[in-house]
Write a structure and sequence with these properties.
The protein is an alpha/beta fold. It has helices spanning 18-22, 57-65, 87-107, 123-136, 158-167, 189-208, 211-214, 233-242, 244-247, 271-278, 303-306, 312-327; strands spanning 4-9, 28-34, 37-42, 45-51, 71-75, 112-116, 140-144, 170-174, 220-222, 263-265, 286-287. The protein has a single domain (4-11, 52-334), classed as TIM Barrel (Alpha-Beta Barrel). The strands form 2 sheets. An 8-stranded parallel β-sheet has the order 1-5-6-7-8-9-10-11. It has a 3-stranded antiparallel β-sheet with strand order 2-3-4, with no helix packed on it. A hairpin with a 2-residue loop joins strand 3 and strand 4 (45-51). The two termini are 12 Å apart. The structure holds zinc ion. Zinc ion (ZN) binds at residues 7, 9, 174, 223, 291.
Length: 335
Protein backbone atom coordinates (compact mmCIF):
# COMPACT_ATOMS: atom_id res chain seq x y z
CA UNK A 1 0.00 0.00 0.00
CA UNK A 2 1.37 3.43 -0.98
CA UNK A 3 2.09 5.60 2.08
CA UNK A 4 2.78 9.32 1.83
CA UNK A 5 3.82 11.17 4.98
CA UNK A 6 2.84 14.78 4.28
CA UNK A 7 4.18 16.33 7.50
CA UNK A 8 7.95 15.95 7.86
CA UNK A 9 10.74 18.47 8.34
CA UNK A 10 14.19 18.75 6.82
CA UNK A 11 17.04 21.26 6.95
CA UNK A 12 20.22 21.68 4.89
CA UNK A 13 23.32 20.26 6.57
CA UNK A 14 25.19 23.52 6.00
CA UNK A 15 23.44 26.85 6.53
CA UNK A 16 25.17 30.20 5.93
CA UNK A 17 25.51 32.38 9.02
CA UNK A 18 22.78 34.86 8.03
CA UNK A 19 23.16 36.72 11.32
CA UNK A 20 26.76 37.59 10.44
CA UNK A 21 25.77 38.41 6.88
CA UNK A 22 22.82 40.69 7.69
CA UNK A 23 24.18 42.03 10.99
CA UNK A 24 21.13 41.35 13.15
CA UNK A 25 18.49 38.88 14.18
CA UNK A 26 17.81 35.36 15.40
CA UNK A 27 18.67 33.57 12.17
CA UNK A 28 19.41 29.88 12.69
CA UNK A 29 22.66 28.13 11.85
CA UNK A 30 23.95 24.66 12.66
CA UNK A 31 26.93 23.88 14.88
CA UNK A 32 28.08 20.36 13.93
CA UNK A 33 29.74 19.72 17.27
CA UNK A 34 30.03 15.94 16.90
CA UNK A 35 29.50 13.34 14.17
CA UNK A 36 25.84 12.85 13.31
CA UNK A 37 24.61 15.58 15.66
CA UNK A 38 24.24 19.34 15.44
CA UNK A 39 23.12 22.18 17.64
CA UNK A 40 20.63 24.60 16.13
CA UNK A 41 21.81 28.06 17.21
CA UNK A 42 19.11 30.76 16.98
CA UNK A 43 20.84 34.15 16.98
CA UNK A 44 23.46 33.37 19.62
CA UNK A 45 21.29 31.06 21.76
CA UNK A 46 21.08 27.28 21.73
CA UNK A 47 17.66 26.26 20.39
CA UNK A 48 17.60 22.48 19.86
CA UNK A 49 19.85 19.47 19.35
CA UNK A 50 19.14 17.59 16.11
CA UNK A 51 20.42 14.38 14.55
CA UNK A 52 21.50 13.54 11.03
CA UNK A 53 18.00 12.34 10.10
CA UNK A 54 17.20 16.07 10.01
CA UNK A 55 19.41 16.50 6.94
CA UNK A 56 20.55 13.15 5.51
CA UNK A 57 18.12 11.99 2.78
CA UNK A 58 19.28 8.36 2.64
CA UNK A 59 19.14 7.84 6.42
CA UNK A 60 15.58 9.19 6.33
CA UNK A 61 14.58 6.82 3.51
CA UNK A 62 16.04 3.89 5.48
CA UNK A 63 14.20 4.87 8.66
CA UNK A 64 10.92 5.22 6.74
CA UNK A 65 11.39 1.80 5.14
CA UNK A 66 10.96 0.26 8.62
CA UNK A 67 7.38 1.60 8.55
CA UNK A 68 6.75 0.75 4.87
CA UNK A 69 6.51 4.41 3.90
CA UNK A 70 7.93 5.38 0.53
CA UNK A 71 7.18 9.08 0.21
CA UNK A 72 8.00 12.02 2.47
CA UNK A 73 6.62 15.51 1.83
CA UNK A 74 9.36 17.69 3.30
CA UNK A 75 9.15 21.23 4.58
CA UNK A 76 11.53 23.39 6.56
CA UNK A 77 11.54 23.56 10.37
CA UNK A 78 9.18 26.44 11.28
CA UNK A 79 11.89 28.25 13.26
CA UNK A 80 13.43 28.93 9.83
CA UNK A 81 10.41 30.98 8.61
CA UNK A 82 12.12 34.25 9.73
CA UNK A 83 9.02 36.44 9.14
CA UNK A 84 10.45 38.85 11.72
CA UNK A 85 13.36 39.66 9.40
CA UNK A 86 13.46 42.39 6.77
CA UNK A 87 11.46 40.99 3.83
CA UNK A 88 14.43 40.97 1.42
CA UNK A 89 16.48 39.03 3.98
CA UNK A 90 13.62 36.61 4.68
CA UNK A 91 13.35 36.11 0.91
CA UNK A 92 17.07 35.26 0.69
CA UNK A 93 16.75 32.68 3.49
CA UNK A 94 13.58 31.29 1.85
CA UNK A 95 15.26 30.95 -1.53
CA UNK A 96 18.20 29.13 0.02
CA UNK A 97 15.85 26.65 1.76
CA UNK A 98 13.61 26.23 -1.30
CA UNK A 99 16.60 25.51 -3.56
CA UNK A 100 17.80 22.87 -1.10
CA UNK A 101 14.43 21.10 -1.07
CA UNK A 102 14.09 21.37 -4.86
CA UNK A 103 17.49 19.68 -5.30
CA UNK A 104 16.45 16.92 -2.92
CA UNK A 105 13.18 16.32 -4.78
CA UNK A 106 15.00 16.24 -8.12
CA UNK A 107 17.53 13.71 -6.75
CA UNK A 108 14.94 11.37 -5.18
CA UNK A 109 11.69 11.92 -7.14
CA UNK A 110 10.07 8.68 -5.92
CA UNK A 111 10.77 9.41 -2.24
CA UNK A 112 10.49 13.14 -1.74
CA UNK A 113 8.02 15.90 -2.50
CA UNK A 114 8.70 19.43 -1.31
CA UNK A 115 6.95 22.41 0.23
CA UNK A 116 8.63 25.81 0.05
CA UNK A 117 8.70 28.76 2.42
CA UNK A 118 7.93 32.43 1.73
CA UNK A 119 8.37 35.96 3.10
CA UNK A 120 4.68 35.98 4.09
CA UNK A 121 4.94 39.55 5.42
CA UNK A 122 5.61 40.97 1.93
CA UNK A 123 3.02 39.68 -0.53
CA UNK A 124 4.81 41.07 -3.61
CA UNK A 125 8.02 39.19 -2.79
CA UNK A 126 5.99 36.16 -1.67
CA UNK A 127 4.11 35.92 -4.98
CA UNK A 128 7.36 36.19 -6.94
CA UNK A 129 8.85 33.39 -4.87
CA UNK A 130 5.68 31.31 -5.37
CA UNK A 131 6.21 31.51 -9.11
CA UNK A 132 9.82 30.37 -8.63
CA UNK A 133 8.64 27.55 -6.29
CA UNK A 134 6.32 26.32 -9.04
CA UNK A 135 9.18 26.46 -11.55
CA UNK A 136 11.46 24.54 -9.12
CA UNK A 137 8.97 21.66 -9.08
CA UNK A 138 7.82 21.96 -5.49
CA UNK A 139 4.26 20.89 -4.63
CA UNK A 140 3.29 23.83 -2.44
CA UNK A 141 4.26 25.85 0.59
CA UNK A 142 4.35 25.58 4.36
CA UNK A 143 3.36 28.73 6.26
CA UNK A 144 3.02 29.76 9.90
CA UNK A 145 -0.27 29.81 11.81
CA UNK A 146 0.25 33.55 12.23
CA UNK A 147 2.58 36.00 10.53
CA UNK A 148 4.03 38.44 13.05
CA UNK A 149 0.71 38.10 14.90
CA UNK A 150 -1.31 38.85 11.78
CA UNK A 151 -4.05 36.25 11.39
CA UNK A 152 -4.52 34.44 8.10
CA UNK A 153 -7.81 36.19 7.21
CA UNK A 154 -6.00 39.53 6.67
CA UNK A 155 -6.34 41.05 3.20
CA UNK A 156 -2.56 41.38 2.96
CA UNK A 157 -2.46 37.60 2.33
CA UNK A 158 -5.06 37.59 -0.45
CA UNK A 159 -2.52 37.93 -3.29
CA UNK A 160 -0.71 34.88 -1.85
CA UNK A 161 -3.90 32.76 -1.77
CA UNK A 162 -4.73 33.91 -5.28
CA UNK A 163 -1.28 32.92 -6.57
CA UNK A 164 -1.41 29.52 -4.82
CA UNK A 165 -4.79 28.91 -6.40
CA UNK A 166 -3.75 29.92 -9.91
CA UNK A 167 -0.40 28.09 -9.73
CA UNK A 168 -2.05 24.98 -8.25
CA UNK A 169 0.20 24.97 -5.19
CA UNK A 170 -0.93 23.29 -1.95
CA UNK A 171 -0.70 25.08 1.41
CA UNK A 172 0.26 23.52 4.75
CA UNK A 173 -0.35 25.62 7.87
CA UNK A 174 2.03 24.85 10.74
CA UNK A 175 1.82 26.30 14.28
CA UNK A 176 4.70 28.50 15.40
CA UNK A 177 5.37 31.66 17.50
CA UNK A 178 2.79 30.29 19.90
CA UNK A 179 0.40 32.78 21.48
CA UNK A 180 1.11 33.33 25.16
CA UNK A 181 4.39 31.40 25.14
CA UNK A 182 6.13 34.10 27.18
CA UNK A 183 3.61 33.43 29.98
CA UNK A 184 4.07 29.66 30.10
CA UNK A 185 7.70 28.72 29.53
CA UNK A 186 7.59 25.79 31.98
CA UNK A 187 6.41 22.23 31.24
CA UNK A 188 6.82 22.63 27.44
CA UNK A 189 3.42 24.38 27.48
CA UNK A 190 4.04 26.37 24.28
CA UNK A 191 4.25 23.04 22.44
CA UNK A 192 1.56 21.15 24.37
CA UNK A 193 -1.02 23.93 24.79
CA UNK A 194 0.04 26.78 22.50
CA UNK A 195 0.56 24.80 19.29
CA UNK A 196 -2.92 23.20 19.19
CA UNK A 197 -4.47 26.61 19.94
CA UNK A 198 -2.41 28.24 17.15
CA UNK A 199 -3.74 25.79 14.59
CA UNK A 200 -7.34 26.38 15.67
CA UNK A 201 -6.63 30.12 15.46
CA UNK A 202 -5.54 29.65 11.84
CA UNK A 203 -8.55 27.51 10.84
CA UNK A 204 -11.06 29.86 12.52
CA UNK A 205 -9.44 32.94 10.97
CA UNK A 206 -9.63 31.49 7.49
CA UNK A 207 -13.25 30.32 7.93
CA UNK A 208 -14.57 33.51 9.54
CA UNK A 209 -12.60 35.69 7.12
CA UNK A 210 -14.24 33.96 4.17
CA UNK A 211 -10.95 32.79 2.64
CA UNK A 212 -12.36 29.43 1.54
CA UNK A 213 -15.25 31.12 -0.31
CA UNK A 214 -13.06 33.73 -1.92
CA UNK A 215 -10.53 31.12 -3.12
CA UNK A 216 -12.60 27.98 -3.77
CA UNK A 217 -9.72 26.07 -5.38
CA UNK A 218 -7.24 26.80 -2.58
CA UNK A 219 -6.06 23.50 -1.03
CA UNK A 220 -5.09 23.96 2.63
CA UNK A 221 -3.89 21.36 5.13
CA UNK A 222 -3.72 22.10 8.87
CA UNK A 223 -1.12 20.45 11.11
CA UNK A 224 -1.56 18.17 14.11
CA UNK A 225 -5.06 17.05 13.16
CA UNK A 226 -6.29 20.66 13.25
CA UNK A 227 -4.90 21.27 16.76
CA UNK A 228 -7.67 22.05 19.23
CA UNK A 229 -10.18 22.88 16.45
CA UNK A 230 -12.13 19.61 16.35
CA UNK A 231 -12.18 19.20 20.14
CA UNK A 232 -13.78 22.65 20.49
CA UNK A 233 -15.80 22.74 17.26
CA UNK A 234 -19.12 22.56 19.12
CA UNK A 235 -18.19 25.71 21.01
CA UNK A 236 -16.94 27.46 17.88
CA UNK A 237 -20.12 26.60 15.97
CA UNK A 238 -22.35 27.63 18.87
CA UNK A 239 -20.43 30.90 19.22
CA UNK A 240 -21.11 31.68 15.56
CA UNK A 241 -24.82 30.98 16.15
CA UNK A 242 -25.29 32.84 19.46
CA UNK A 243 -23.11 35.90 18.82
CA UNK A 244 -23.13 36.53 15.06
CA UNK A 245 -22.50 40.21 15.89
CA UNK A 246 -19.01 39.15 17.05
CA UNK A 247 -18.26 36.10 14.93
CA UNK A 248 -20.15 36.37 11.61
CA UNK A 249 -19.06 39.91 10.81
CA UNK A 250 -17.23 39.00 7.59
CA UNK A 251 -18.84 35.69 6.65
CA UNK A 252 -22.42 34.59 7.43
CA UNK A 253 -21.79 30.88 6.69
CA UNK A 254 -21.58 28.57 9.71
CA UNK A 255 -18.25 26.84 10.51
CA UNK A 256 -19.72 23.33 10.07
CA UNK A 257 -20.26 24.11 6.38
CA UNK A 258 -16.47 24.21 5.88
CA UNK A 259 -15.51 20.84 7.35
CA UNK A 260 -14.65 19.19 4.07
CA UNK A 261 -13.11 22.30 2.53
CA UNK A 262 -9.67 21.57 3.99
CA UNK A 263 -7.33 18.73 4.91
CA UNK A 264 -5.60 17.82 8.16
CA UNK A 265 -2.93 15.31 9.15
CA UNK A 266 -3.56 12.39 11.49
CA UNK A 267 -1.05 13.32 14.23
CA UNK A 268 -3.23 12.70 17.28
CA UNK A 269 -1.17 10.01 19.10
CA UNK A 270 -4.58 8.62 20.05
CA UNK A 271 -6.78 6.33 17.96
CA UNK A 272 -9.96 7.44 19.75
CA UNK A 273 -9.19 11.09 19.00
CA UNK A 274 -8.64 10.20 15.34
CA UNK A 275 -11.93 8.26 15.23
CA UNK A 276 -13.72 11.22 16.81
CA UNK A 277 -12.43 13.49 14.03
CA UNK A 278 -13.32 10.89 11.39
CA UNK A 279 -16.90 11.17 12.68
CA UNK A 280 -16.90 14.79 11.47
CA UNK A 281 -14.45 14.85 8.56
CA UNK A 282 -14.35 12.54 5.51
CA UNK A 283 -11.41 10.14 5.60
CA UNK A 284 -10.12 11.47 2.26
CA UNK A 285 -9.45 14.75 4.07
CA UNK A 286 -7.21 13.14 6.72
CA UNK A 287 -3.60 12.60 5.60
CA UNK A 288 -0.82 10.51 7.05
CA UNK A 289 1.51 12.89 8.89
CA UNK A 290 4.24 12.28 11.45
CA UNK A 291 6.21 15.48 12.27
CA UNK A 292 9.31 13.31 11.75
CA UNK A 293 12.06 13.50 12.93
CA UNK A 294 11.10 15.34 16.12
CA UNK A 295 10.30 13.63 19.42
CA UNK A 296 6.76 15.05 19.69
CA UNK A 297 5.98 13.48 16.30
CA UNK A 298 4.57 10.05 15.48
CA UNK A 299 7.92 8.42 14.74
CA UNK A 300 6.27 5.12 13.87
CA UNK A 301 4.81 6.90 10.80
CA UNK A 302 1.15 6.06 11.29
CA UNK A 303 1.71 2.54 12.62
CA UNK A 304 -1.17 3.13 15.07
CA UNK A 305 -3.46 3.61 12.06
CA UNK A 306 -2.09 0.52 10.26
CA UNK A 307 -2.65 -1.64 13.36
CA UNK A 308 -6.10 -0.17 14.13
CA UNK A 309 -9.52 -1.63 13.41
CA UNK A 310 -10.28 1.16 10.91
CA UNK A 311 -11.51 -0.34 7.63
CA UNK A 312 -9.21 -0.71 4.63
CA UNK A 313 -10.81 2.12 2.65
CA UNK A 314 -10.26 4.54 5.55
CA UNK A 315 -6.65 3.40 5.91
CA UNK A 316 -6.01 3.85 2.17
CA UNK A 317 -7.53 7.31 2.30
CA UNK A 318 -5.29 8.29 5.21
CA UNK A 319 -2.14 6.64 3.87
CA UNK A 320 -2.26 8.12 0.38
CA UNK A 321 -5.55 9.18 -1.22
CA UNK A 322 -6.07 12.25 0.97
CA UNK A 323 -2.52 13.51 0.34
CA UNK A 324 -2.76 12.77 -3.40
CA UNK A 325 -5.93 14.87 -3.60
CA UNK A 326 -4.40 17.67 -1.52
CA UNK A 327 -1.28 17.69 -3.72
CA UNK A 328 -3.17 17.11 -7.02
CA UNK A 329 -1.15 14.00 -7.87
CA UNK A 330 -1.98 10.53 -9.15
CA UNK A 331 -0.76 7.40 -7.35
CA UNK A 332 1.15 6.24 -10.45
CA UNK A 333 3.44 9.27 -10.10
CA UNK A 334 5.54 7.17 -7.69
CA UNK A 335 5.74 3.98 -9.77
ZN1 LIG B 1 5.80 19.88 12.20
Amino acid sequence: MLKIDMHTHIIPKQIPNFRDKFGYGDFVYLDHHKPGQARMIKGQQFFREIGQNCWDPQIRIDEYAKYHTQVQVVSTIPVMFSYWAQPAHCLEVSRFLNDHIANLVASYPKNYLGLGTLPMHDSLLAVKELERIKHLGLSGIQIGSNVNNQNLHETSFWPIWEACESLGLAVMVHPWEMMGQEHMPKYWLPWLVGMPAETSRAICSMIFGGVFDRYPKLRVNFSHAGGSFFGTLGRIHHGHHCRPDLVAVDNPTAPLEYLNRFWIDCITHDLNALKYILGMLASDKVCLGSDYPFPLGDLEIGDFVAKSDLDDKTKQDIFSRAALAWLHLEANYFE
